[in-house]
UniProtKB/TrEMBL annotation:
This is Glycogen debranching N-terminal domain-containing protein. InterPro entries: 6-hairpin_glycosidase_sf, 6hp_glycosidase-like_sf, GDE_N_bis, MGH1-like_GH. Residues 264-577 form the Mannosylglycerate hydrolase MGH1-like glycoside hydrolase domain. Gene3D superfamilies: 1.50.10.10. Residues 8-177 form the Putative glycogen debranching enzyme N-terminal domain. It comes from the Bacteria. Pfam families: GDE_N_bis, MGH1-like_GH.
Amino acid sequence: MLSTRTVLKENDLYLVGDASYAVAQGESGLYRRDTRYLRRYEWRLDGERPQTLAQQERYPFWLHEQSANANVGYTMRVGLRRDLTVSAGELRDDLTVTRYVGEGPHELALFLSADFVDMFEVRGWQGGLGERDVEVQATEGGVDFAYTAQDGLRVRAAVRASPPATWDGEALRWTLERDETRVRVSVFPLEGDETPAPGDPQVLAAEYDALGARLAPAWAGLDPEDAAVVRRSVQDLRSLSFRTPQGTFPAAGLPWFVAPFGRDSMIIALMVHRHLPELALTVARYLAAHQGQGYDPVTLEQPGKILHEMRVGELTRTGRTPHRPYYATADATPLFVWLVGELSAEHPELAAELRPHWEAALGWLLSDGDPDGDGLIEYTPDPGGITNAVWKDSGDSTFTADGVDVSGHVAVIEVQGYAYAAYRAAAGLYHLLGEPERAPEWEARAERLREQVQAAFWWPERGYYAHGLNGDKRPLRVLVSNPAHTLWTGLFAPEYAAQVARMALEPELWSGWGIRTLGEGQPRYNPVSYHNGSVWPHDTAAAALGMARAGLHAEAAQVARALFGAARAADDRRLSELFAGFAREPGLGPVPYPAACHPQGWDAAIGLALAPLLRGVGEEALV
């Protein structure tokens, strides 16, 4: 695994490199959705890797680089100016090689290798297909790599070079005789009968600039450092998006999750729908189009259920994974109703357009979503798939106070909050449809759920809520971030919301950078774990939004300030998917989590979502 990743992306094409943007090891590569096309893409000058002088991302799809001959010392002999872009279906690499000292030719080489492996195999999926039989064909000045998948899909990486290069079996090579030579390499990852279609980086840059100008009011008046975080948020949301028939859909994160996700996309949409309504509407319409229709014990599809994840790689297409799509989540379905309700307040036509879908989702909440019929939304751990079908979906994230994994029908707190928000949304949707007589049923259902959660989940000794109920209906009295996250949904009455906020900001949970997923001293606590002591910015951001919703504005500002502080501590002004739960120390930034996605969709939404909480708040009062 790479210790540092770099990523350039546009639509469903993305380059994952090492710290120097080179593709040569680990998970690095040129990807299209769930397939890695190239596993090596690496320049050499006179047999050595050029020495990088500076690398700057002009945009999330555009790297500008200045390099020199290896071991440059005090005087550069050969300089390389490079612009590497990913646009539409093309990776384009423009180099200008300039000789400053000496005479005679220099050799430039680009080492290339293709493997066409599935993303799941890159991640270590057991039972992969092994090494592919890749065809390599030299073309006029370039080279083609091709592979026919087991389902018959033909995929190809067409590499074109100008001026023409010579392919020697492992590299394209140029002999440079002039004082200055310009070289362009284009790579086109193609499926089926597609033909190369060059992109236009300048047009794409203008699109980014126009989006930034449109959303500039979101950071107007902020401290310049905070404004930089929001601008990065906007750029990343645009970069993460990829095209679907319904519009551009936000990927969950790079490099592993350039795919439609239910929960992730809806949390993004709920956070930014007022700023980016077109993105949020796409999320709702896409998920409606792929809503569960029948029962499938492999994919866990059920009527009305909203998908968790959808993949298109070879392993999925040939039935080796269930992601076609996979419905293993308990929370996406109530989130869908909540999202449609929020969007319909500004886009009333959506209530009627998606009525069959949000009503089917409500039907799932009252049937398959509540397998034991007790009024709570539950999941049953699936030993052959996702054990915990909620946002903390790792196998060890949900357990009893004695440290025993949950079993049976498990009800976790934030899913009940999503259901509460869904029932309230349903009442509003029926009002919009001119059927107010149907609203009281859903308002009453929301109130009953609030009362039920209060009776079953409240933890009076802590002034907090339990993580959930185990299959035996015993509360999971473990100190976790989930109740603070649930504040966002409005589930808790005001007096209890204030207690939850207070507990979330106590040292056991509050790291100074965010709310730990699991409190210090709890069973399984580990600050460098996926869900048992780390800090997930989106989880903390949900708590901040909930505090603001409950009128706890000072607390909300404190949390927002901490998250912006974490982003400001990063060179690229980004929040990662998660970071370690170590306590904040003066003058130091948060400790990174090694395998975190960067950028990540949830966290890209935070800048836009929390910016209003910062206005007029001084950092010195909130750290």
